[in-house]
Amino acid sequence: MLPIIFVMPVIQLLVLSFAATYELKEVNFALVDMDRSIVSQQLITQMQATGYFELWDEYTSTERAVQEMDKGVVSLVMVIPKDFSNDFATGTKSEIQLIIDAVDGSTAGLIQSYASSIITEFGRKRNGNAIVRIASVGGNLSKSINLISVNWYNPQLDYLTYMVPGILVVLVSMIGLFLSGMNIVREREIGTIEQLNVTPLTKSQFMIGKLVPFWIIGMFDLLVGLALARFGFEIPFLGNLFTILIIAGIYLILIQALGLFISTITDTQQQAMFIAWFIMVVFILMGGLFTPIESMPGWAQDLTLGNPVAYFIKIMRMVLLKGAGWKEVLGMVLIMGSMAIGLLGISINRYKKTVN
Amino acid sequence: MSELAIQTEQLTRTFGDFTAVDRITFDVKQGEIFGFLGANGAGKTTAMKMLTGLLTPSSGTAKVSGMDVYKEAEGIKRNIGYMSQKFSLYDDLTPEENIEFYGGVYGLRGQELKQKTEELIRSVGLEKFRKKLVRSLPLGWKQKLAFSISIIHNPGIVFLDEPTGGVDPVTRRQFWERIYEVSNQGITVFVTTHYMDEAEYCDRVSIMVDGRIDAMDSPDELKRTFNASSIEEVFIQLARSAERGEG
């Protein structure tokens, strides 16, 4: 069990951080090139040169290409019409058809925006050259407003920077919630709890005994994860590490208290596991790890006010990536702290040294 | 010593409309070995759980070591040892670790705990098993260890719930020798058993049928009263009238 507790989080962090990404890489696309010109060839080369798209194969008809999409081997079908190069040369509006597999809506959106920006860029470059030529002749440069956006805190929009702090939170939450909760129910199942219940051990002593070892394991796992984030993924650490550790300590107590609470309302490990999973899935999906809380409907945003995972993910990102200090996060820490005290109180109160 | 270790009056426990223990009244004298007999489902374990503070009685009164089971359950726990029917030491710890853990729970510390641990390992004869996991010990050894741990804090009373279930006759014999040793130290022994030969070793026995205590006396007196040659015969005479089945 011990190696699992320590090795599992590291593997999860490595796998999840690289896999759970919204960045597009090497999307296979099918091509139907009815134009077969130098211009269309250049466009296709441009598509592949970005590294986002990879030509799967060429097809003679759209139907054939769409069949490949039905099979799931390509996510994009690009159809270049017959008169493409002609229209392009004469400056007539030319059209390219993109058929996108939209089973996964957000990926489809990304494919669309990446592909259209490549094509637009391609067109602008070519026409731009033309404009420059015209300009050099006529000396009449058109003025336009250019928007330049700068991304703060994560200038390269690096997905890892955004994901790793959140994934770390999920990892310590799993340790905290499952280990502490399961442990008491397990003692109930094998009967050792009865032996403890005839001793003068107090309820608080028992609960603290269950809390402390897994708290230490959780903190240790977090430290390993943070080290990996800092030196492996080179995530910026703008905030204070001790701030993170103190908040993590409070957060872990809260999550463990929840685990203890689950153990007081269940009799078997199966029941406890089911409830813990149920809660964990809701917490993670509504914790702002994958989808921003700001884009949830109002009632769902209200629900996240009771979600410790959401608080800690937010705090981690604020402190690590934006360098936030106590002033900015204290409110959330106080909420987590009072939730921890409340839940711990309820769990100790609910834990009975007698049987029914 | 006239003090009573256990004293119950009309002690009852119901679960819904099922009366597991039905108005039992009995006393156990200090230093006595008291055998608590009964068929499966007669209510022995329920009665024992009430006396050890694991279960709150439905009605009636009970005092253990002079303390009330309703009000002073935690006080009672300091003064009793308990060995459950189900082996309940930690399988994934060594005997030594189990002893240290329970010793610690009962407030033994430092040098005293170390000394007690050594003493206990020697008295049970666990020297060669001390670094092995309890899981790998034969059942008889496990039971001896559990018994020794249940009296690590020198309690006034020790409750043994079928301590020799599933144990071979030789080990059972050794187990009873240990019970006598403990009794000679002045600890009251309250023991349930299915083995009628073991009942003969007790100072006094009670026989439970359908939640009631139908007979209680010294083994010799019981045999005389029921005109039987052994406790087993007494038991069968009484248990035949039972209405409850196995359970």
SSE blueprint:
The complex is a heterodimer of chains A (356) and B (247).
Chain A: H1 2-19, E1 27-33, H2 38-49, E2 53-58, H3 62-71, E3 76-80, H4 84-90, E4 97-100, H5 105-138, H6 159-190, H7 192-197, H8 203-232, H9 241-265, H10 269-285, H11 298-303, H12 308-322, H13 326-350
Parallel strand pairs in A: 1-2, 1-3
Antiparallel strand pairs in A: 3-4
Chain B: E1 4-15, E2 18-29, E3 33-38, H1 44-51, E4 59-64, E5 67-68, H2 73-79, E6 80-83, H3 95-105, H4 110-124, H5 139-150, E7 157-161, H6 169-184, E8 188-192, H7 196-199, E9 204-209, E10 212-217, H8 219-225, H9 231-239
Parallel strand pairs in B: 3-8, 3-9, 6-7, 7-8
Antiparallel strand pairs in B: 1-2, 1-4, 4-5, 9-10
Helix pairs in contact in B: 3-4
Please characterize this protein's 3D structure:
In chain A, strand 1 (27-33), helix 2 and strand 2 form a beta-alpha-beta unit. Chain A is of the alpha/beta class and 356 residues long. Chain A folds into two domains: 24-138, abc type-2 transporter like domain (abc type-2 transporter like fold, 3-Layer(aba) Sandwich), CATH 3.40.1710; 159-350, no CATH class. In chain A, strands 2-1-3-4 form a four-stranded mixed beta sheet, with helices on both faces. Helix content of chain A is 67%, strand content 6%. Chain B has 247 residues and is of the alpha/beta class. Chain B has a domain at 4-89 and 156-239: P-loop containing nucleotide triphosphate hydrolases (Rossmann fold, 3-Layer(aba) Sandwich). Chain B has nine helices and ten strands. Chain B has helices at residues 44-51, 73-79, 95-105, 110-124, 139-150, 169-184, 196-199, 219-225, 231-239; strands at residues 4-15, 18-29, 33-38, 59-64, 67-68, 80-83, 157-161, 188-192, 204-209, 212-217. In chain B, strands 6-7-8-3-9-10 form a six-stranded mixed beta sheet, sandwiched between helices. A four-stranded antiparallel beta sheet of chain B has the order 2-1-4-5, covered by helices on one side. In chain B, a hairpin with a 2-residue loop joins strand 4 (59-64) and strand 5. In chain B, helix 3 (95-105) crosses helix 4. Chain B is globular, with a radius of gyration of 18 Å. Chain A binds chain B through residues 190-192, 194-202, 353-355, and chain B through 49, 52-56, 73-74, 77-78, 80, 82, 84, 86-91, 102, 105-107.
